[in-house]
Amino acid sequence: MRKLPPLNAVRAFEVAARHVSFTKAASELSVTHGAVSRQVALLESWLGTPLFHRSASQLSLTETGRSYLAEVSSLMDRLAVASMYVCQQAAPATLRVSAPPTFTMRWLIPRMSVFQRMRSEVEIHLTTSLAPMNFKEHNYDVAIRGYQKPPEGYGAVPFMTELIVLVCHSDLLESQPLKTPRDLERHALIGYATEPYAWADWLDKAGVAGLKPANVLKFEQMCFALQAASEGLGVVLVPLFLVIDDIVAGRLCTPFGLLAAHRRTYFAGYAGKAKPSPVVDSFCQWLPEEGMETERSTSDWAAEMGWEL
């Protein structure tokens, strides 16, 4: 069994000896001068030897006090380092993720509970952005973006392929059927500032370049444009996986199927090309699993429709 001195007294001695002042020690420890003096006296009594020379005008360490201070300071430093290490290990890990707004709202957030069950100790901080990945200027660990090819200069894990298709509210077709792309002349084309696939490109691929629609509605974000389409205000180009549930439920439809569909890949990017931190690595391993599940369910539905993705 260890025979230890009173540790509060050791702490008071270490601070007082370091400052060679009971007054300064009292200030650092947020106690009174008398409390420090009593703790030091308690330690001296326990050790059976004086550690300070005391006079009316001066305080100094005895030879024993100087030797004891060297040992105690070393032990205090080691204790501080060990305690800091334990605190860091016990502290929850933080994962900062940046992703597109509508993708975050309609795909990522509904699935986050799966990752959190796997890594319950991880605190997830989600922010939304469509700006290109920039880990020097932005404080995030993982950036999710859609690209035609892997972003250069970063580690990047592809986890899902999207198809951008034309969709609209099912009721819209009752009054103005869409049998061919030329029928879009009677409809409003809904766009958004952040669109990855422009209407001009879709119309060109569909063989009706230069078509003049009945109206054009422009919004800032995809989520607003999608809501407008859900209200029957027109047709919009959006990723199929984001609206598959609405299509299955009959709220939205894809009148032209995969005609002129645009394909791109979602990547989870992280700084550097070396192996990422364990938390980032686990997140980047989880995303492809969820992406594969989304692609599988979308492919199954497409097969029922007679489409080949």
Set out the fold topology.
Elements: H1 7-19, H2 22-29, H3 33-47, E1 52-54, E2 59-61, H4 63-90, E3 93-99, H5 101-118, E4 122-128, E5 142-147, E6 154-169, H6 172-175, E7 188-192, H7 199-205, E8 215-219, H8 222-230, E9 235-239, H9 240-248, E10 252-253, E11 262-271, H10 278-305
Parallel strand pairs: 3-4, 3-5, 7-8, 7-9
Antiparallel strand pairs: 1-2, 5-11, 6-9, 6-10, 6-11
Helix pairs in contact: 1-2, 1-3, 1-4, 2-3, 9-10
Give structural notes.
By secondary structure, this protein is α/β, with parallel strands linked by helices. The chain is 45% helix and 22% strand. The chain contains 10 helices and 11 strands. The strands form 2 sheets. Strands 3, 4, 5, 6, 7, 8, 9, 10 and 11 form a 9-stranded mixed sheet that branches. Helix 2 crosses helix 3. The longest helix has 28 residues. The protein is rod-shaped, with a radius of gyration of 33 Å. The protein starts with 6 loop residues before the first helix and ends with a helix. The model has no long low-confidence stretch (mean pLDDT 90).
